[in-house]
Structures are given as C-alpha cells and as structure tokens.
Specification:
This protein is an all-alpha fold. The protein has helices at about 20-25, 35-45, 50-70, 95-100, 120-155, 155-170, 175-195, 200-205, 205-220, 220-235, 240-245, 250-260, 265-285, 300-305, 315-340. The protein is about 65% helix and about 0% strand. Helix 13 runs parallel beside helix 14 and helix 13 (about 265-285) packs antiparallel against helix 15. The longest helix has about 35 residues, at about 120-155. The protein starts with about 20 loop residues before the first helix and ends in a 6-residue tail after the last helix.
C-alpha cells in the first residue's frame, strides 16, 4: 500500500513497546547517591588540598609534641653539664670525648639554651603545652558559649535582652588586667590547696596558667555565645521545633536534641577557628611572663627567654616563633576548609 506523504498518522514499531531491560533502566538513573551530612562534608573536605595539607601539618605537630617526647633521650628540665648555649648539632667537650671514644651520643638537634637544656625537647614540650591550653580553653569556650547563647535565643524577650547586655558588659573587661589580678589573688589559696594530697599538679601548672583558664571561662566565651544565638534565632522558627513543642518536649530537650544538633556544623567551624586564637593568646601571655610556671616551657615563654640573645643565638627565637605561626596558620586554613565543606550555602 502506497503511503500518503502528507498524512499525519504515526508510524508505530512493535519493538518500541517491549519492556525495558535492566541496563536501559540503570542508564536513566541520574540521581546522586544519598549520603549523610557528615559523609558529604568529609567528601568535600578531602577535595580541599589546602585544608588536607593543614590537617596533616597539625597531625605531625601533635605527633612530635605528644609522642616523640616519650622516647626522646633528653628531658625538658635536665641540664647537660658543660653544654650551655650550643649551636644545632653541636656537642659539649665531654660529649665530644665520648664520641671520640666510640660511644653514641644523641645530638642536640636545635642546640641547647643558656642553662644547658636540650632545646628540641623544650620546643616539643612547649608546643604540647600551647596545644593543650588552646584545646582546653576552646572546649571551655564552646560549652559555656553554646549553652549561654542557646538559652538567650530560645527564650527571647527580656531573658535575651538581659543576657545579651551582660555579654556587652563582659566585652569591656580588660583581660590582661584580670589575669594579673587573678594571678596574685589566687596565689595563696592555690598554694594551700596544692599542699593537700592529690593536688600537687597545681605546683606544676602554676597559678598563672590556672588564672588563664579562669579568664577564658569568664571572658572569652562571649563571641561563641553571639554566634550560637544568631543560629538559634533562625532555627527555633523551624517546623520540627514547633512539632516538638506540640508533643510536649521540654525546653532543655529541644535546645539539646534539635537546636544545637542542627547547628553542629557551624559549631565545629567556629571551634576550629577559636583554637588558633586561644593558642596565640596563651603564647602572648607567656611571652609577657603570665603563662606556665618555670621550668615548664611553652612556645611563648621560649620566645621570651630567647629575645635577649637575638643577636648571638637567633635560632632560639626563630624556632618557637615559626612553630607558633605554623600552628596558627594550619588551624586557620583547616577552619576555612571545614567552613567550605559543612556550610550548606556553599554546596555546588
């Protein structure tokens, strides 16, 4: 039968109506793999090379700060006789004689200080102290700031008004002056407490460092509180919060299980960025002599001790200063990477 060239009748092929094969079905699936919030954030973080390099730098610094001192042949407080102010990889007269006799003497990698103490182990222990102070102080800031800010935002009204005015007042308190006053005010009570069994660690830590922790607990949480408050003000209007209230959930449970849980990404990023700030504050106070007690070192106190011999032994100042800069830079870059990875607005 001859076909009409101007006909609008569809040409049907029976093969077009056969059921699709499994391969054809899979070829039409274009949906992304369903992943959790954490898995998606870590996947995005791994693609950020700068953040990953910073993370590895932090891991290496922590390894040399916490693990290597356990096996290092020198102690941070041991004074080597005749080894005062040695240059890197230099030996004292007695150590050189032992080497000439065929004995193995572990080198002073960074030299020694003016009291004959190995400088490499003091830098490692100093970085450990600075990292511990930064992490502990940041944990204190996170706990106090998140609780305070979430309560102020959740209840709102006059509660929020009064609590935020308290935050404004705390912003005006000079922190260094408070640390100096606390150092003198706590000296006698802490000395009596250190004499009791089980409190000998107070003499090791020192009143200055304890006063630093107290100041962090009193003053430095206000920035975290404001950030958490801004997040909770947005989240508390969500439907799941209204549903939780309708089901009779208490305010504490709503704050803990719903509000703080849903801003955990922002808390992680803010906490990571707070760590370098805490480390810098501790190093600065230790540089001024308001940090850890002698002979326990920190990076700030090492730089302060080396400032007088800058012309003669410049490496004693440059090594802790560079390490402080490296740690702070690595945490800042890691914080930027975490922000890019866990911020929903930056997903592509």
């Amino acid at each position: 039968m001859k076909e009409n060239p101007i006909s609008f009748q569809l040409k049907l092929n029976p093969d077009d109506f056969l059921p699709a094969t499994e391969d054809e079905k899979q070829s039409l699936v274009v949906m992304r793999e369903s992943v959790s919030f954490w898995k998606d954030g870590l996947r995005r973080l791994r693609k950020n090379r700068v953040a990953m390099v910073s993370l590895w730098v932090i891991i290496i610094v922590m390894f040399f700060s916490f693990i290597v001192p356990l096996f290092y042949p020198y102690s941070y407080e041991t004074q080597v006789k005749g080894a005062n102010s040695l240059a890197p990889f230099e030996y004292s007269i007695e150590e050189q004689a032992m080497r000439d006799a065929g004995e193995f003497v572990f080198p002073h990698i960074f030299g020694t200080d003016k009291m004959g103490r190995d400088y490499a182990i003091r830098v490692m222990v100093g970085s450990r102290i600075s990292l511990m102070v930064g992490l502990i102080a940041t944990a204190i800031i996170l706990v106090i700031g998140s609780i305070y800010g979430s309560i102020a935002a959740f209840f709102g009204g006059w509660v929020d008004l009064v609590m935020m005015r308290v935050v404004d007042i705390i912003y005006t308190v000079p922190d260094i002056l408070l640390i100096v006053l606390l150092s003198f005010a706590l000296k006698a009570p802490l000395a009596e407490l250190a004499a009791l069994p089980g409190f000998g660690w107070i003499n090791i830590v020192g009143t200055n460092l304890i006063s630093i922790f107290i100041v962090f607990a009193l003053l430095y949480w206000v920035g975290m509180a404001r950030m958490v408050r801004s997040q909770i003000l947005i989240l508390k209007e969500s439907e799941y919060v209204t549903a939780a209230r309708a089901l009779g959930a208490k305010s504490g449970r709503i704050i803990k299980k719903h509000l703080l849980t849903n801003c955990i990404g922002t808390l992680i990023v803010t906490t990571t960025l707070q760590i370098p700030s805490s480390i810098f504050t501790e190093s600065f106070l230790s540089f001024l002599g308001l940090g850890v007690a002698v002979p326990l070192p920190s990076l700030g106190s090492l730089a302060s001790e080396a400032i007088n011999g800058l012309n003669t032994y410049p490496h004693l100042l440059f090594i802790p200063a560079l390490l402080i800069s490296l740690i702070i830079l690595s945490f800042n870059l890691l914080g930027d990477g975490l922000r890019d990875a866990f911020d929903p607005k930056m997903k592509n």
